[in-house]
Model the fold of this input.
Amino acid sequence: MQHREELHELLVRAGLTVVEDVRPGSLFPPEAGWRIARGIAAPDGAARKALDAVWWRRLADADGGFLVAVLGHRIGGNDSWWTRVRCAGGGVPELTGNFGFVALSLDGQVLLAQVPGTDGPRVTALDRLPERLEKTSAAAGRETEVERAEVWAAVPGRPAWPLHWAEGIGSNSAAPDELLIRLLDVAECFLHDCDRPAVLDAAVAHPDPRVRSRPADTFRPKLTSDQWVCLVRAEPSPSRRVLWAERACAWGVELPEDLYDDLLVGPSRAKAAELPGLPAHHLPSLAADADPRVRATACARWEDLAAPLRERLLADTDDAVRTAALLGHHVVVPMPREVFTALPAPRRALEQCLLAPELEAALVRDGDAEVRRALATNPRLGAHAVAVLAQDPYDDIRSVVALRPDLTEQQRAAVRFDFDPMSMSRTVPWVERLHGDAGAMRRLAVSSHPLIRRSVARARHLPSDVVERLAKDEDRTVRLFLAESCDDAPAELLLEVWRWWDGSFSYPGRPPQPPQLPPHGPVALRRRPRRADAPPGPGRSGVHGCRRRASRPRSRSRGALPRG
Done:
């Protein structure tokens, strides 16, 4: 309402009498008038040097009435409205100032407009508007391909390649590297499946940030450590440089020390200080940084800090830094109740700190389920507290306890956990860290928890007896993960899984075609009709924890897994 009143006041100051605001309905809409005023699809001869009194008399009816819309004073809802006004005495309204306007006669035949431009105001005046628009539309419909090409040729810039051509060329194995490198200026989507070193080298050093980011954003990146480092160094944005450094570290890349030196200067050093591979010799300077966010981040490496630095952080003048220091201190030193109750937000203490025995005993029986839920993830809980939470009335709390690494398999089997076999499966981190321990793999391969067995099946190499056991696992997703991830999976298992799995055997860091798969086996199976007693595929009853991607042809990528 205030916006409308401001418009009416402006029109009154311009010497006009406001009659009413008008919904366009069947009238020529204001938005179309603005397009003509800006020269977009305007009929020939629309531009004028100025508006004289003759044009204003053509615009107004016998009572001096016409419709007007003013730039910056739009009224109406989804459709802009006109405002009907009257100009007394047949004079010229004072609308030709610094603001823009578009005006329409009540019969829709005359349009006047003025909009600001870089070279001064752009003035438009048209009579016989419907007739002129009809002629313009008819001429546009008769435009030939040659005429259209001439218009586009006048537009600055390189001519665009059709995107479907670019995608096809990028996926063509016969296309030379030089062509694909040129193609990066047009499209980058083909980088998802590209593993050519020269092309990836060019991509990570490309000036376009979309091209640089594409190989790092792919689900199964093929970048080498040197290419990751090149990507980080080539990124001009400090925040994105840290982002790519985080991504590189997540894929196991060891960043050079001089790169850490570069990342730790500038506005994003607080995020850079969180990088897991940060050399310890940087910690003293971080602990003394002027930015409290950086000092608080340094507390996460508490075990690497010298005693004087720890004392200084515990006495820091910033509340957030002191809290972070307390949390680091009580990872080893039991946290008493008085310290816990003084924390502004106790959740991190519940999840990571070593708690005093009496405090821990009280918290595991706390009436607040959120407190117990956070405690269930704490790796420093005592055995008695874990046993209490294993009997918690909440399913999700017991389910978290069931995946703790400090349980024996006998204890784990006694926990009533909740598990949906159709849910997305993520490799349990502590199981993944034990992939190289043959004894641990033997112990965990007989676990009562499917997620643990699935995580064992993700190992690149496993003892033969573990492979034999998992290849017969009752959980089909265990067998699928073994076929996807383990070099020791027998060919018979791969062929058995191939019969019912409509997805691919692909997984990050693994070849799309497992080397142990017989070269003619899949082809023979694809030609052989499915037996009536064969297990239904995931498109029917569903693989445990698996989902089908039906949009891709089976010959290219046989589906996708619900990774995390």
